[in-house]
Amino acid sequence: MRACRSRGGAGRRGCGTPVLMNLSLPLTRARPRLLLIDDDPGALRELVAILQSDFDVQHALDGRSGLHRAQALRPDLILLDVVMPGADGHVVCRLLKADASTRDIPVIFLTGMHAVDDRLQGLALGAVDYVGKPFAAAEVRARVYVHLRLAGRLTASDADLSVSEGAEPASFVQVQAAMRYIAEHLADLPTVSQIAQSVGTHEVRLLALFRQQLGLTVSGYIAEERVRTGCRLLVETQMSVQEIATEVGYSSPGNFISAFKERMGVTPRAWRESDRPALATPAAESRGLG
Fold it and tell me: Which residues in this protein are found as 4-aspartylphosphate (predicted)?
């Protein structure tokens, strides 16, 4: 896992600030920087209130200025509204992932849309997650910490210390470990009970943690991860649809095609042959999960 990016000098390394534990950290350690992009001032005020105690929070009120601020500030993570006038969230994400200076920054979409197709459209562009509106403070902090940790922008000790109110440090580690385990074993996943056992918990506990921290069931997360990985493989490789189906854990190409079409609106072949893969390509180097 790479170290956090430096801020303001060769000896300064990015990291988190503990929320619950009163431990002394070196003064040179900078808090992770977040960029919030939303045209709703009320939503921005709410997010700032949720996050400012833990992070260096910057913001922009429209997509274009948000893109420019991202290029200038190089934040550790971006929370990006989907529905904005002018350059909407999908346009901004597409441009971020096309720019070598910003393509590695994790993007979490902010949206009131909860349809699976809407979420997967953003994930295919390179976003790592969604946070639904209205905001739940614990969920926002949890998702931010999970993806900072997965992207290597927090050290292991920082991730353990920097936890949201009322949450146990171990719960964050377990969800992160389960997400990584799922991504690494899509071709032949064990049962949910066995996944839970592999990260030191039990099935009921893991199901509760996924709902609490990610807003999904374990099976729902697996379904999205399989389609997301399928999108990536269609873009990055010359693997056949049958080979990709096997790689992401479907028993037959037909099952993969059906699931893919249900979630993306087109078949894998049509996806590969359309202009959509060109939009998703930059995510190959910075896929946030797994």
Answer: 81
Question: What's the rounded Cα separation, in Å, for the pair 221 and 218?
Answer: 5
What residues does each domain of the chain span?
33-155, 168-290
Torsion region of 8: left, alpha or beta (phi above 0 gives left; psi -120 to 50 gives alpha): left
166's torsion region: left (phi>0), alpha (psi -120 to 50) or beta?
A: left
**Strand runs (DSSP E) across the chain, as ranges?**
33-37, 56-60, 77-81, 107-111, 129-132
Q: How many CA atoms lie within 13 A of 211 on its CB side?
A: 7
The predicted model gives 119-128 an average pLDDT of 81
Tens of pLDDT, residue by residue over 222-235, are 988 898 888 888 87
What is d(CA 154, CA 200) in angstroms, rounded to the nearest whole number? 22
Whether this model's pTM surpasses 0.85: no
Domain 33-155 has CATH 3.30.230.10: no
Task: Choose among 279, 280, 276, 228: nearest CA to 256.
Answer: 228
Which of the 8 DSSP states describes residue 80? Answer: E
Chain centroid, CA 188 distance in Å: 23
Straight-line distance from the first to the last Cα atom of the chain, in angstroms, rounded to the nearest whole number: 12
Whole-number pLDDT of residue 60 = 95
Q: What kind of fold does domain 168-290 have according to CATH?
A: Arc Repressor Mutant, subunit A (1.10.10)
Reference 131, options 242, 246, 36, 244; nearest CA is 36
The half-sphere exposure of 160 on its side-chain side, counting CA atoms within 13 A, is 5
